[in-house]
Amino acid sequence: MDTSNKSQHEYELVGVLVHTGTADSGHYYSFIKERKPAPGDPSTERRWYQFNDSNVELFDAKDIPKQCYGGPEQITQWDTNLQKSVTRTFPRPYSAYMLFYERCSDTSSDSTSPVAEDHASNIPSDIYTHVWDENIGFLKDRNIFDTAYFRLLWNVLHSIDAHTIDQLTSPKKDVDFTFRIIQLTSEFVLEFFHDQKITWISKTGQSFFAVCFVLISKDVIGSLVDS
After folding, report:
1. What is the pTM of this model?
2. Please, which contacts does 107-111 make with residues 24 or more away whose CB atoms are closer than 8 Å?
3. Bridge-partner residues for 51, per DSSP?
4. What is the DSSP letter of 37?
5. Closest Cα partner for 16 from 99, 95, 94?
6. What letter would DSSP give residue 65?
7. Local structure of 110: helix, strand or coil
8. Which of 116, 91, 96, 93 is nearest to 104 (CA)?
9. How far apart are CA 68 and CA 63, in angstroms?
């Protein structure tokens, strides 16, 4: 470092883009440091997170050398031929591809306090709106496709017996149970198919079809025909 240059700055590592695989193919994921401490956190330490597709979890910065430096790695495995644990050396398939730094202080002054102005927080409005639209959409999809949501709807629909109780008198108006069951189920079906981008068979899908058939199991359609 050229100490004669008084205009130099100090930088802090705030992000690492990691590639795992080979030169022909692979996968990318990131380790990113918080820009500000979490609200309500008594410590002023900014935490690191691992962003791997839709999986986001806390990451210990002490593991950066192990997770980002690449190079050889010693792994102890059980050798069936030798009938004992053997330590072998393998090349790590993952290493840092790109590093991100943030200016934290100016070495031309005696002060080492962080830079007051946070330029990165000035996000353009169109990008800010787009990111939040994606976040809201993700939360909505997560709730719609959540198995707990299916169970809740199932329990609500089965908690009402349209044969024994046709209407409930409220302070404002009468509530038609048959109509409300059809309305709730129809809204659920339309929302599900509107937000479904792929077709799959799983426990969630089975729960969905079970809720769809609740109308038949409760003879709601038959009640409407009889009425």
Report:
1. 0.47
2. 107/6, 107/8, 107/9, 107/10, 108/6, 108/7, 108/8
3. 30, 56
4. P
5. 99
6. H
7. coil
8. 116
9. 8
Only one residue has tokens 């031929």, namely 81
> Residue 106 corresponds to which tokens in the numbers above?
């100016």
Q: Tokens 């108006």 sit at which residue?
A: 173
d(CA 53, CA 59): 15
Write 24-33 long-range contacts (CB < 8 A, 24+). Answer: 26/93, 28/97, 29/53, 31/59, 31/64, 31/67, 31/68, 33/61
Tokens of 67: 């997770």
Q: How many CB atoms lie under 10 A from the CB of residue 174? A: 9
- In single-letter form, the type of residue at position 177 comes to F
DSSP 123: -
Sorted by sequence, the CB contacts under 8 Å of residue 197 that are 6+ apart come out as none
Tokens of 139: 């939360």
pLDDT by residue for the chain (227 residues), tens only, comes to 555 565 678 899 999 999 999 888 999 999 999 988 777 766 778 899 999 998 999 999 999 998 998 888 888 888 888 888 988 888 888 999 999 999 887 555 544 444 444 544 678 888 888 989 998 888 877 777 788 878 887 887 777 665 555 555 555 666 666 777 777 777 777 776 665 654 444 555 555 555 555 544 444 444 444 44
Judge residue 58's burial from the number of C-beta atoms within 10 Å of its C-beta, 0-12 exposed, 13-18 middle, 19 or more buried.
exposed
Report which of 113, 91, 83 is spatially closest to residue 10, judged by C-alpha positions.
113
Structure tokens at 177: 């149970």
